[in-house]
Structure of Transpeptidase family protein:
Amino acid sequence: MPVTEKNILTRLYIVAGLLFLFAMAVLVKLVSIQVVEGEKYRKLAMDRTEKMFTIAPKRGNLYSDDGSLLATSVSRYTIRFDAETVGKKDFEENVKPLSDALAKLFGKTTSHYQQLLRKAKANKNRYALVARNLDYSDYIAVKQFPLFNKGPYKGGLIIEQKIVREHPLGKIAERSVGYERVDENGYYTRVGLEGAFGEYLRGIEGKRLKQKIAKGQWKPIGWDNIVEPQDGYDVVSTIDINIQDIAHHALLGQLEKYNAEHGCVIVMETETGEVKAISNLGRTTDGKYYERLNYAIGESHEPGSTFKLMSMVVALEDKVIDTNTVIDTEKGTYKVYNRTVRDSKHGGYGKITAAKAFEVSSNTAFAKIINNNYKENPEKFVNRLMNMNLHRELGLPVKGEGTPVIRYPGDKGWSGVSLAWMSHGYEVSLTPLQTLTFYNAIANDGEMLKPRLIKEVKEWDKTILKFEKEVINPSICSKETAHKVQQLLKNVVEKKHGTGHGLYSPNFSMAGKTGTTQKNYVSKDPEVMKYISTFAGYFPADDPKYSCIVVIHEPDKSVGYYGADVSGPVFKSVAQKIYASSPLVDEVDVHNAETKNLDEEFQRYFAASNKKYNEVPNVEGMSGMDAVSILENLGMEVEVKGNGKVKKQSIAKGTDLKKVNKIVLELS
């Protein structure tokens, strides 16, 4: 069929119509993209080129009770170079002086930095690393260097800041100080004081805009943040760094001597409940000790003979006995159904008073006292324990408090032998801090206080929140009962038959109770059986200022395992050193206090702290804390590098003090 002019026109109209429809569709889509979906695509484009990053605020400082730093946040800076933003003329004029300045500051050669910068320029590198992990003073210095002083656009200077947490005490109290961490999903892990008081310490995050450059890297835009971060508040804890240092080293020495598995020490101020020291040390596979877990707060275990104080208080309050009631320990064994309670002394103690039974720590006597007087009404015994708050957690702000176990008749695990075994600290479970809280209450004439780890929250010199003494139970027992058991605790140390008499000193007084708990006692294999050695008490014995508990798990049985031998010396060392550093009672003459049983390190400290110096003393070998105390008391400024004991001092011993302003100590 021949193609006519009409047919051609028809086809042209069809093509034109289709093109018009296509153009309209494109126009509609453009309008849709611009108007309807414009925000979505603008955001997508922005996300691919610019992005808002979170800036962590500076976390508040954590202080000891005297204002010494336990944890602080410091800024660390990374310096990078954007070679693309720098003009060729500026680069050539400044590359040599910039390299000279960098070499002088960081101890590398000028050629090293020239090569680095020229390579970045040749490769059009917009994110070349120059230096990382700088402190504030180095960061300020770098900003003033040639070329970099022109800023981020003309000088190519890129500055990245991060906040890191540092602990001036190093490994001492590391677990108690703790940390707060958040993962990529926003879940927090909170440990110790840092975790407990994170709501005050952490501050409010800021915002910083960054631009995406080559290789998926992000470069900050401009000098300033979009939203400035708000620093966290400072928290003042109750920890006394001197007492903390004393407790740490006393515990460490004893763990090493007995090759024990782990242990803890807590020192509490009697009148206020303030925790002045809390040390937790566990053994590694290579035999070293470090702050692994918070045993003092988190580990609930059978307390053994330290629980006899609780049993004695119950029996005295219910008046089923008095301290002069006579109990027949027979031949050192007492059978209840199919279980036999045994005394540590073979053959027993014969007929003794309840007071002496406590002082010699007779298991059979206490099993008889509690079982015979409460077997018809065991609820009465348990109710009295519960009235003294022994079944409740302390409600500490620190996470991970261990759960106490005080079984009630009818509970799973309760049996006809439960009373006899509970009487001397089995079939019950307490953490060291829960046990100490009870002993502290006895020292306080019956007033039970909640252990306190924080004094106040501050912003600079302004107090935001202050924490006061908190009473758990105003009277766990009558003052009459409290005074009776106070004398018994004193007798444990002072009387020759007392289990703690080996700790007695005529120069200062202590009161307390030993405890030696068998672990895995259901096993008949003596190799499997392990021990927990404990000493809990307070000092001075009259008008107590501090209460203290020492718990050491699984000491080497071939060296020793009794509480008086393993944990008792740590208690005595802590008490003795606190006496020596700040006398607690007027009648104590610390200059005449016995030192023959003190460790060699403290003997040097004790001698140095009581000597008038005109010359720089030798502090090598001392703990850093002791050395700083001595030197600062002599008027010197002390700079400390590292942690542990002093291995080197910058000023030689014997140097005239008048010629010395500052001394640097290197610690191992």
In short: The mean pLDDT is 86. The radius of gyration is 35 Å.
